[in-house]
Amino acid sequence: MRPQRVERTVDKMVIEGGHRLEGEVSVSGAKNAALPLLAASLLTGEELRLENVPELGDVRTMVHLLRRMGARAESPQPHTFSLQAQELTATEAPYELVKTMRASVLVLGPLVGRFGRARVSLPGGCSIGSRPITLPPVGLAKMGAEIELRHGYVEARCKRLKGAWIFLETPSVTGIENLMMAASLAEGETVLENAAREPEVCDLADLLVSMGARIEGAGSERIRIEGVKELKGGSHRIIPDRIEAGTLMVAAGITRGDVLIREAKAEHMQVMMEKLVEAGMDIRLEAKGIRASMEDRPRPVNVKTLPYPGFPTDMQAQIMALVSLARGRSIISETVFENRFMHVNELNRMGAQIQVEGNTALVVGTSELSGAPVMATDLRASASLVLAGLAAKGSTCISRIYHLDRGYEAMERKLASLGAVIQRVRE
Ligand code: EPU
Q: What is the pLDDT of residue 133?
């Protein structure tokens, strides 16, 4: 089959800073829940209906991958997908797709679990860290699959996976999701120790249980899965995106605005909200969502990123933009990924005073940022540049905005609806 191109635009974002954000905005479905849930459609021949699917570059890539393997994936209305993987024509995730989106490896577990075979490219390096994909192949081997690494691909084969006790050296999110999907169709019991506890892992477990899987303990460090022979279809609504919600909260704060983020779920964002309050934001839970506002200059905060329930690495760049304007010094340590400070040089070009030493950034707050041409380097780095641009004096032009489009749905429309002066322009 000829590889189809997943479209990437070369748009830029131009922001005229200094406008206070005010109003109400809705948060979209969670990208990092949508991706594994889409992959879970491979676990059954019956129809799976997903609602609240965000319209994003990464979702399009996953849907494209499912279709390439012969699955049916239709979107009868915006944010809804109907998926069916009765018979597949291929059980392969090719390099061209995996290199554009690492989360493509999420198809490995479901393919081996249901079809007993898969060929999935290894993604190689990544702009935020080396991010090895070791856990799923090691876990599948423990469950009895024959695993070979050939020509840059993981090739897995088995008759039927067998339950196993698996200790995960790192609580990898996509690692646990892969193994949870595989174990749902294995023979006997699988115990996953040191499991990731992210809300997205729980959302996947909820979907799998509704499809007939027998899973206990999702959200804790130990997940037990009693394999079943087959899973059925179903319908599921994806949880709201806690990182998009957090990004919008910072947008309210950094412009000294007042924004109600509809549908945001406070229980998924406890530590993040504590840090934002420490930074001087006023956060209130209302019936419709979370209201975030800020009147004064931010206060400095120290932040250390950690696996859930700790402060999420996916919000590190955004809170850094906020405290770059604080009255005082903040220390931000990144412990999840080794190279996730690519936004620092760009923020410094806008007048921030940030110094990086190893995995720690010292942010000396400044009273003003100034607009500049900057370049997005990854998804969350792009978000921090948008936030800095909203607060900066003058105009900020962010190139390579396709990084932002991978993970934020209609960000500029949402921000413009709150009063931001922001425009997408074609290069
Ligand atoms: N790791 C290993 N071995 C493995 C897998 C991971 O050592 O086999 C290490 C990684 O190198 C990293 C740490 O474990 O240092 C955590 O990585 P993890 O595997 O948990 O990350 P991931 O599953 O690849 C997901 C999100 C990321 C998010 C991280 C951490 C999805 C699709 N992606 O990635 O999201 O940063 O968890 O929370 O769920 C983003 O949305 O911007 C994003 C990068």
A: 77
Distance from residue 337's CA to the centre of ligand 1 (Å)? 8
Task: Please report, for the domain that includes residue 148, its CATH number.
Answer: 3.65.10.10
DSSP string, 274-338: HHHHHTT-EEEEETTEEEEE--SPPPP--EEB-STTSB-GGGHHHHHHHHTTSSSEEEEE--S-T
Owning domain of residue 200: 92-237
Pairing of strands 22-26, 258-262: parallel
For residue 308, which atom of ligand 1 is closest to its CA? 38
Domain co-membership, 390 together with 283: yes
Q: What is the pLDDT of residue 10?
A: 72
Any domain includes 63: no
Distance 300 CA to ligand 1 centre (A): 27
Nearest atom (ligand 1) to Cα of 307: 38
pTM value > 0.70: yes
* DSSP-derived 3-state class of residue 168: coil
Q: Is position 202 annotated as part of the catalytic site?
A: no
pLDDT of 126: 73
- pLDDT tens string 296-336: 999 999 999 999 999 999 999 999 999 999 999 999 999 99
Domain presence at residue 74: no
Q: Of 237, 267, 283, which closes a domain? A: 237
Domain match, 274 and 349 both: yes
Which atom of ligand 1 lies closest to the CA of 174? 23
Q: Is 199 helix (H, G, I), strand (E, B) or coil?
A: helix
Of 308, 270, 271, 277, the residue nearest 294 (C-alpha): 277
Q: Which residues of the chain have pLDDT under 70?
A: 1-9, 125
Are 294 and 188 within one domain? no
The one-letter amino acid code at 281 reads M
Residue that is last in its domain, among 189, 213, 237:
237
pLDDT at position 54: 98
Model pLDDT for residues 305-315, shown as the tens digit of each residue: 999 999 999 99
- In a shared domain, residues 350 and 252: yes
Q: Would you say the CB of residue 4 lies under 6 angstroms from ligand 1?
A: no
Q: In this structure, are 97 and 122 located in the same domain?
A: yes
